Amino acid sequence: MIKSATISAEVKAAKPNQRIYQICMNQLDENRPILFVDNKKENLEPAEKLGWQTLLADPENLWINKVNRQLCD
User: Fold this and answer.
1) Which of 54, 14, 66 is nearest to 24 (CA)?
2) How far apart are CA 42 and CA 3, in angstroms?
3) If the chain, 73 residues long, is cut into consecutive pieces of 10 residues, what is the mean pLDDT of each piece?
């Protein structure tokens, strides 16, 4: 279930600007694990600074199986 959505044009910030990650963080429960998936490595670094788990989305979509395994654990 999606609990929040952040649209970069509305908040006037975009990845990899740290501001958009902080806006998202303010909407999330920091006591729960956060997994951030992106297809650009430079967009993962700001999320890692916030303590989020990150995963690089590969073109073959193998990342989907990794997420499914994490959700099942």
Assistant:
1) 14
2) 25
3) 79 93 91 90 95 94 90 80
